[in-house]
């Protein structure tokens, strides 16, 4: 992750900035000023503009060939964000920015762009509500040049836990979504039983406990199971790209949504997506969201890639902080952990609390449970696709570092393999993968019923 740390502007720049502020006060009350030093000279070009709307936040990205200099001001009455781009040419790329705003953007009403004065292009972002902006620059990386990122966060962040518990009735909250048609693959159904010994006596000691059609013991589940599903990448970070031009971020979101629907159809289970649309979520925030809803499991979903197109198969990973299980696993973890650099986050937004809670999982029961979950899932996905290796793999994935949630990362197939890329974009294969993941999750719970929530999970 990188962000240009810029010094305070010199006196001339400060006077120019103050002059601009006085002009803005005529249109509304000035709330805050975010200043980047002014560098006058030959105009540089904006290569691309992108807008990523989502309920979590809306991102505007301006990509230039040179480092972008800017002044940004938040203004009240009406709410708007004013950004002056210094030394930038007003061309067709910037002219296209207003057309990229959709009516359903949660935070942006419209954008106006034009020449403010010689050498300065002004963007005025008219807002639907008060926002908390995070504005930063990113150095070139991968296929991206210099970027100026405007992240528009709501003052009150959406609560993922509230979204889970908002049900139409107490009965709906107890049993989940309305029943869906029974699937043929739904052969590991877990019964949510009421923990009331007066209504259902314990099984006799001389008789085996009840089992389902797979011969697995039906556990008593005294509470709702919550599963965090994490579709990898998103927004500015496309993930791996197949030879056919398909993005990892797109196929894994589709698989995750299918799996969420299947989990929500279970009367005793519910799922939360760390992202439900095409936007970027920093790795640390993915873990935070799972901990915020006190998830019982964390399942990160990806589509593998390697430098050799013949690499193929599905894999399941658990965390290792002491070295990867193979050279390829280490390469993959490094690639996935670079997501924050590609997607782009401000250094100032790092969560110190999360860093303090990243415990050594080898000294907790969490890694042991992650291993059990990984074995159950690996056994199921091996029935629909070749396994890249016949065993669980380990590497230092940042998204698997929740100290109190069993966590796995599933590589559904190699998008860098043309044959498997075609599988990944096939809806039938996506359905099969979602079914297999659900069976693996249920197989894990059939042998490892959830316990009471840990105190650590209650801290956030």
Automatic annotation (TrEMBL):
This is N-acetylmuramoyl-L-alanine amidase. Its EC number is 3.5.1.28. It holds the Pfam family Amidase_3. InterPro entries: AMIN_dom, MurNAc-LAA_cat, N-acetylmuramoyl_amidase_3, TAT_signal. PROSITE patterns: TAT. Residues 287-442 form the MurNAc-LAA domain. One of its GO terms (molecular function) is N-acetylmuramoyl-L-alanine amidase activity. Residues 172-222 are annotated as: Disordered. Coiled coil: none annotated. SUPFAM superfamilies: Zn-dependent exopeptidases. It catalyses: Hydrolyzes the link between N-acetylmuramoyl residues and L-amino acid residues in certain cell-wall glycopeptides. Keywords: Hydrolase.
